[in-house]
Amino acid sequence: MLLATQLERVFILKDKGQEIRLSDPEPRWSTEAVLNFYAGTYPILTTAKISAPAIKDDAVEYRFESVMGTKG
Fold first, then answer.
1. 8 A C-beta contact, residue 43 and residue 23
2. Is 12 left (phi over 0), alpha (psi -120 to 50) or beta?
3. Residue 31 CB: number of other CB atoms within 10 A?
4. CA gyration radius for the chain?
5. Each residue of 20-45: pLDDT tens digit?
């Protein structure tokens, strides 16, 4: 029998050379809402963008990428 399960969302932030794994505060929220939720704790997220999701280790990973200091 085939079982379908919903994969957990994980959000990854790279700050000062370290990867910080952030849990999903509310699975029903959009990725932008999660970004805004964590922006209060991590101010670097106020100018970040969200990368395309990647499935890794039975979780859907989204990366918050800072656009600070990049051209274009």
1. no
2. beta
3. 16
4. 13
5. 999 999 999 999 999 999 999 999 99
Residue ranges in 1-72 assigned as alpha helix (H): 31-39
DSSP 8-state code for residue 43: G
Read off φ and ψ for residue 4, nearest 5 degrees. Answer: -110, 125
**pTM value > 0.90:** no
58, two tokens: 């039975």
Amino acid at 59: A
Q: What is the largest CA-CA distance in the chain?
A: 51
CB 55: neighbour CB atoms within 10 A?
A: 9
